[in-house]
Amino acid sequence: MLPIALDVARLKVALVGRGDAVLRRLDALDAADARRLVVFSDAPSPALAARAGDRLRRRLPAAGELAGCRLVVIAGLPDASSEALAAQASAAGALVNVEDATALCDVHMPAVVRRGALAVAISTGGRSPGLARLLKGVLERLLDARWGAWLDELAAQRARWRDAGLTMAAVSQRTAALVRARGWLARLEMTPHPDLPSQGRKGSDFGSGTIALPPPLRGRVGEGGTRADS
Question: Rounded to two decimals, what is the model's pTM?
């Protein structure tokens, strides 16, 4: 598997299916800002009709209707219908995702934690969606809403550094120093999580009920760059 991020705001995407499964996929695509999305369902629920709005086509796609799509997502259909639609999408040159049918998938839909523009994805390659959901729950508690604002701060600072002519390596060093100076990673280390045991065997990294991170290289951000504290 090659983890990549698709900018679905730029791509034509088709969502095909029925029931709660297709509704979950619609929520995921909307969260990813899929602007050129068309939804096909021959039995749309009231909830799907309401959320899809004028993007909804009350039928399954006919031959040729998937032409130009770069991604086709299929959910909640019988196996035979899913296989036929996956073949149609592949013939049109689209990447295909079929829920709970890894053999038909070119791409997998990971569990995603979103905090503003920050997106952390967890994929098991379709082997254990339940594990992906469990890890997502852990990360949702570790990465609170402040991380979106912190990313915005970093992005603005990065733009200033690049405008000043700093190299990518220098920007990377300053980013690390700024994050450590703000104590953002230390907050992760101190965040308790209910899924971790409050008591463990001696020496266990998880005995305190917190996530134990490696000790950071403490640094300072200044006009002259970064340095390790002595």
Answer: 0.77
Contact 105, 97 (CB under 8 A): yes
DSSP state of 198: S
Pairing state of beta strands 56-57 and 118-122? unpaired
Instruction: Give the Å distances, CA to CA, from 192 to 112, 150, 189.
Output: 21, 21, 8
Task: Label residue 187 by pLDDT band (50, 70, 90).
Answer: confident
Mapping DSSP to helix (H, G, I), strand (E, B) and coil, where does residue 155 land? helix
Cβ pair 228, 181 in contact under 8 A: no
Q: Strand ranges (DSSP E) for the chain? A: 12-17, 36-40, 56-57, 71-75, 95-98, 111-115, 118-122
CA angle at residue 125 from 86 to 11, to 5 degrees? 50
Give percent helix, percent strand, percent coil of the chain, each to the nearest 5. 40, 15, 45
48 exposure class (CB count in 10 Å sphere: 0-12, 13-18, 19+): buried
Classify strands 95-98 and 71-75 as parallel, antiparallel or unpaired. parallel
Mean of the per-residue pLDDT values of the chain: 86
Cα angle 113, 148, 161; round to 5: 125
Give me the domains of the chain, ranges plus CATH numbers.
12-109 (3.40.50.720)
pLDDT bin (cut points 50, 70, 90) of residue 188 is confident
Q: What would the pLDDT profile of 25-66 be if each residue is shown by its tens digit?
A: 999 999 999 999 999 999 999 999 999 999 999 999 998 999
